């Protein structure tokens, strides 16, 4: 009996040691194989400066006294060269350093060179907006503005679609009107396109991520257990319904009030010049399923206002409804549209832009 007990004890000890060795081996292999943590994207200037990409509007901006001597021009610095850089993951549109190059032309636009004076017979579109229009994280040729120009060139010989992302010196709809009045309309566009990002209307996140677990299993000592816990935590968060962000318009109405006032002003400015106006509402690429998308109220507010105000408007949520969100992102740390999303935006806008240019 005692011998049997010793045999059982030995087997249990051997099994325990085996489990510990297997766990240690698994932990070691996991640590060797796990990707490095992603860090926030940055802007790298030609002078060696590096700042968070979240400060892009401030970094690109400049004071009025620094503007190009010619007018009309953008409020961005002319002939600027920099890179937007991302960590850890490869993307086909990023270079070997995980970066994408950004340049402004001699008039301060993220665009190819063009003449401020519109040539006779040219159809010209001015697209004004924030980072969604500027094209954060994608090469110039992949921005929806450039793709739209390419599509229009299949129909007409001479078309210029100007990328006015950040050109107004403000990154919210409520601040676009002064620059459009002073410089934008002086470019003699046939059509002005206003890109409305939902965070123009308030402090609206592009995506929501769950906070880290309050307590780590085994105090967080195991990377394997941390990964399993994070996966479970994300699943629980994904199953949680989120309130509609439209409530922000009542809680903090100032940005929405400013946006409505600016759009009304732009409607009148364009009408005085016989220029077409089109408002484009970009979705956030987060939980795009119809019953889970938490931004319907913001889309509805903009489209209903434009309808009442007599402003032509297109809501791009239906273009992306039901699609998985992450395949549309630049990077896990940047939920702007990647080249796939940029192409879909351009294709969705094409019929409305053609219609406006033919009127």
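^ Assign residues to that structure.
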């Amino acid at each position: 009996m005692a011998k049997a007990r010793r045999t059982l004890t030995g087997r249990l000890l051997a099994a325990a040691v085996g489990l510990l060795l297997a766990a240690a081996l698994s932990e070691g292999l996991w640590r060797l194989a796990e990707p490095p943590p992603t860090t926030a994207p940055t802007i790298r200037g030609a002078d060696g400066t590096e700042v968070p990409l979240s400060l892009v509007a401030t970094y690109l901006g400049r004071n009025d006294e620094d503007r190009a001597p010619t007018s009309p021009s953008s409020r961005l610095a002319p002939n600027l060269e920099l890179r937007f850089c991302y960590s850890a993951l490869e993307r086909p549109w990023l270079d070997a350093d995980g970066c994408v190059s950004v340049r402004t032309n001699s008039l301060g636009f993220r665009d190819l060179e063009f003449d401020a004076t519109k040539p006779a017979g040219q159809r010209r579109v001015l697209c004004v907006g924030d980072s969604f229009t500027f094209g954060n994280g994608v090469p110039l040729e992949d921005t929806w503005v450039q793709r739209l120009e390419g599509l229009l060139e299949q129909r007409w010989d001479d078309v210029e679609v100007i990328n006015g992302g950040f050109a107004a010196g403000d990154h919210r709809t409520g601040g676009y009107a002064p620059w459009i009045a002073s410089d934008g309309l002086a470019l003699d566009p046939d059509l002005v396109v206003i890109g409305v990002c939902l965070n123009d209307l308030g402090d609206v996140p592009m995506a929501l991520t769950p906070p880290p677990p309050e307590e780590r299993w085994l105090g967080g000592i195991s990377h394997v257990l941390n990964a399993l816990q994070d996966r479970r935590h994300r699943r629980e968060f994904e199953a949680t319904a989120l309130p509609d962000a439209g409530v922000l318009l009542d809680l903090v109405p100032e940005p929405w009030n400013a946006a409505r006032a600016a759009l009304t002003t732009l409607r009148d400015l364009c009408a005085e010049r016989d220029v077409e106006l089109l408002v484009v509402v970009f979705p956030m690429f987060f939980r795009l399923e119809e019953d889970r998308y938490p931004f319907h109220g913001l889309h509805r507010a903009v489209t209903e206002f434009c309808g009442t105000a007599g402003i032509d408007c297109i809501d791009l949520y239906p273009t992306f409804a039901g699609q998985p969100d992450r395949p549309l992102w630049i990077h896990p740390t940047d939920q702007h549209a990647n080249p796939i999303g940029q192409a879909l935006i351009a294709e969705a806008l094409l019929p409305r832009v053609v219609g406006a240019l033919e009127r």
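The longest strand covers residues 123-129.
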